[in-house]
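Q: Structure for this?
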Amino acid sequence: MRCPYCGSEDTQVKDSRPAEDNTSIRRRRICPDCGGRFTTFERVQLRELMVIKKTGRKVLFDRDKLVRSFEIALRKRPVDRDRIERAVSGIVRRLESSGETEISSEQIGLQVLEALKSLDDVAFVRYASVYRDFSHAEDFEHVIEEINAKIARDPLDP
Ligand SMILES: [Zn+2]
């Protein structure tokens, strides 16, 4: 595994342990060249999913992109990396067990929203404002109403 900091090809595994209910292996790695430390996750890929973009273009489902959506929405929010990983794994498992080989980016976005709703209200609202631009689905309106009601009862931290 190449070091993400200096590009060295020669990184070492310091520690391996099961994560996320044994659906993945988490490895702590260290780069002997620059001393950089990073974590990798190893998982089973059940099959390949295609995502249909709003434009109609199809792209291979990319778990890392899903993680990045969460990271952007959760930027500077107090949510553990492990919780993000679990939320992403949950979505991937649902997608994989749906039996579909193609899924719309809108459906995935809705699942991200649902997951964010239970992780962090601020991140939910951030993501919702992006998602609103590409969806007018009834499901989405319903989710927004729900979160708005929740925020009204329990105002966001300043
Ligand atoms: Zn390095």
